[in-house]
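Lab notebook, bench 4. We co-purified these components, and the gel suggests they stay together. Before we commit to crystallization screens, I want a quick structural picture of the whole thing.
Request: model the full complex, all chains together.
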Amino acid sequence: MVAGVLVLIVVQSVMRGFEDELTRKVIGFQSHLTVTGTGPLRDVGPLLDLIRVEPGVVGATPSVVGPVLAECGTRISTPRIKGWDPETAPSVLPLIECLVAGTWSPGPDQLVVGSEWARANRAEIGSEVNLLAPQQIKELVGPKSGPANQPKKIPLPRTFRVAGIFTTGMFDYDSEYVVTDLGTAQELYAIPQAVHGVAIKLDNPGQASRIAESLRLRLGLDLRVLTWMDHNQRLFAAVAVERRVMSFLLFFVMGVAALGLSGTLITITVQRAKSIGTLAALGATPLQIATIFTMYGVVVGVLGSFSGVVGAALVLANRNGLSQVIGRLTGQELFPAEIYHFTGLPVRYDFGVFVGVALAGMALSVLAALVPAWVASRTEPATNLRRA
Amino acid sequence: MIVPLLEVRELRKSYQLTGRPALEVLHGIQFSLNPGECRPICGPSGAGKSTLLHILGGLESPDGGEMIWKGESMKGWNRTQGALWRRGAVGFIFQSYHLIPDLTVEENVRLPAMLAGVQLGELWEDLLDEVGMTLRRDHLPGELSGGEQQRVAVARALILEPDLILADEPTGNLDGASATAVLDLLVRMVRERQKSLLLVTHDESVAAKVGNPLRLLDGRLAEKEQ
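Here is the predicted assembly.
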């Protein structure tokens, strides 16, 4: 019972901590709302003004984001390019704070790239990167345009140099994004004076759904407003499902412990048949005998749950030290920082989890004791005395 | 006219054995016991003496017949009613003492009162003194001799001053001197308190010290009580 309660609380707390950390990173490095249309949005100025006056909105920036074909040295990849408007983007995306090398100077021939993308493509500050946008690829593989007697134009990739490298701690961002200035991104995507959408930052990301609904009403049906939760629905759903499945499985650990307790108590009813028969001979009612055995369950449940809760609190308090010890013993780091970007194992101390798991442990122990208690109370006293 | 303390009418009991015909242990047992009366139940091994005693004390259900306690039929009582009746009316003494091994002498003696939720005052100390176990009050049963354990069992049986003491071969596990001492103590204490005693024994000399015997042979009383 101790192990069941301990493991369930530790797993629940760490998984919830992981969710919190994930949420913190998502809402920290992603816009909280995005407004998009059915195609590129032209003359986005009035739209930005309309969005900025919405209560709860602290920043809005035009956004051009999309895949490009990149060549860095001998490596080919397909990162997503992001157009950076130096006037408005810093109020929405805190990427500048994530710069770990070089300078934040996305421009017509300069890129700031994610650290994981840089690592995978062996890019360093000053490395040359050639980008081919979808429009150029379309021209390359599509039918020839213009007079029939003129040769087909072959679009050349645009050459950039890596000016800076950022690390957000989110593998998806760090491995997928390269940043240039907004105008260059518009040129690459052949949408001059237009953008793909508007990225919005809120003072309270938890209000994203409410504000999104309000914006939908104000902006009209032609525009689509998505929240950070919509964008990461699958990720959060996967984490939540994983937590529920693990809890469900670990609940069986407690179930097995309860079965063990039930088996122990049934053995005790057989071993202590003489005492049970004697108690009955002395005038103990069936209820009193059942209560004695149920109290076994209560005592085991209370002590087991209490020990489990204390043990879980100790394990959680020393989780990073324990994780290092296990890592040293097994020769493998349990949560490599370069993959998870956690300075420590995340945790959320939720009073409800501690109390809920402890109560479940106690309830299971009492339930486990009920069967032997019932058997002990229903057996005829003479039968128990004969067993002796 | 004296109302019998316990009246037994046509008591029958058989055991169903797997793959074999039912074994009839008691065939229409009938007798009565007056308040303050002490009677041994004699008979050879397998005569059904212990089964009869268990049924009389409500530890086992009869297949048929009726028991009447102070004029009231006990037929149809449920287990809880039986337990509550046993608690106030009957004191048991067993051949193997049946003390609770984890409890001290004092706790074993006080156990019936604890189960009944009765405050005892100094009665338990007087009883321990009377059976000569005061100095061993903090000992566990495992630390006592057979004679000492049975003296504790006598004190336990009398702690709530029940009207009827049921003793199942109380000297069966004791050597000669201890057996005599325990039996004398039991009979004396029961008589002094004017309680009734039914004592199962196969030993005629024991029976002779208790009173007019009920003789049980093959599940039948040798002469039916009127």
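Chain B has a mean pLDDT of 90. Worth comparing against the SEC data before the next meeting. Chain B touches chain A at residues 51, 54, 57, 59-61, 79-80, 83-84, 86-88, 90, 92, 94, 96, 98-101, 111-112, 115-116, 156, 160 (CB under 8 Å).
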